[in-house]
Amino acid sequence: MRLPPLFLFFRPSPAVRAPTAGRHPPLSRAGSASSPRSSPRWPGADSWAWADLYEDPSADLAPGGPDDLFTGDELEHLEVVFGELERTARPTTPAARRAAHRRPKHGGRGAVPGSTGCHPPPVAGTVGPMAIRAVVWDVDDTLFDYTTADREGMRAYLLAEELLARYASVEEALAHWREVTDVQWARFAAGEVDFETQRRDRIRVFLERELTDTEADDWFGRYLVHYEAAWSLFPDVLPVLDALATSHRHAVLSNSSLHVQDRKLRALGVHDRFEAILCAAELGVSKPEAGAFLAACEALALPPDQVAYVGDHPEIDGRGAAEAGLLSVWIDRGGVYATAEPPVGPRRIISLDELPALLGGDTRFGARSGIG
């Protein structure tokens, strides 16, 4: 009896069937036992690499194959299971097959600390011709309510430091802070200055006075106390992460620094939800450049058309991800970009509650979507 080629990727669990004397070693070819290979493997898999599944899918298993290893009932069950897995998980083009062979290196750049980078391919939803297997997330104003935290933190800080004398109102001061922040952040995103310099220059411009680096760092440190006290996730974040936890892999791509976002995600209790965290300060390339999005795909060992990107900025996130070849999802939370002209390419949603249906997954949020 012949099982689908995907069967070659798996080793039967000893708990299911322990080898018995006189039987051939499992999953061998041409009468020789499977030998260890140097390439990384998914947890629980045999030593066959992905390439073996597609280079010679017509090859017969050696004597002592599945007929000799499993009972009739077990084989019948395996046929059903692996037939479904092959239908949903097998890459359909040579380019996709080559991409499926690649793995993120253990502890490689952008990997979550403690992560091995090895995850089994989930049974994911589909938008268009390719399955979406992973979601890459922006952080600020997508998962984390940055705008509210920044406003409330700066409001408290300005009052505590008695810095409102030259402003007609608190709102005027906050608008000035946001304007200065946007200008200095654009300089960082364009590669004109590094992360620390944009932060210090933001304070110098806002205060309209010269400060040493140490003075600027001290000023920002006092502001951070108030800012971090206002940190929170959006209400729709935990429900959607829970809904997609088993169907999709998850990673983060931010234009901030790893030091900032790693600490933030830990404080918010969601750090371990992501297998890779990549930030522009360490990558050396920022959104909307295609290289930033492709670095996230590389960290997941997936081609762009199997990855969705969710972000709040219609251009930096929305258009950038779409032009890089990812499924781009613009989360329009009605903030500063609410009046922006929607760019061509991204799918627009107003709540993360809409995301599972868009990705086509069978989740508690609803049935499989026909979008795409």
Question: How would you sum up this structure in a few lines?
Answer:
This protein has 14 helices and 8 strands. The protein is an alpha/beta fold. The N terminus and C terminus are likely disordered.
List the main descriptive attributes of the protein structure presented here.
single chain, 372 residues, alpha/beta, Rossmann fold, 3 domains, 6-stranded parallel sheet, two-stranded antiparallel ribbon, 14 helices, 8 strands, elongated, disordered C terminus
Describe the structure in your own words.
The protein has 372 residues and is of the alpha/beta class. Helix 5 (146-161) packs across helix 6. The protein contains 14 helices and eight strands. It folds into three domains: 5-90, no CATH class; 106-143 and 232-359, 3-Layer(aba) Sandwich (Rossmann fold), CATH 3.40.50; 156-229. It is elongated, with a radius of gyration of 25 Å. A six-stranded parallel beta sheet has the order 5-4-3-6-7-8, sandwiched between helices. Strands 1-2 form a two-stranded antiparallel ribbon. The two termini are 38 Å apart.
Strand line-up across the major sheet: 5-4-3-6-7-8
Q: Work out the count of structural domains.
A: 3
Instruction: Enter the CATH topology name of the largest domain.
Output: Rossmann fold
- How many strand units? 8
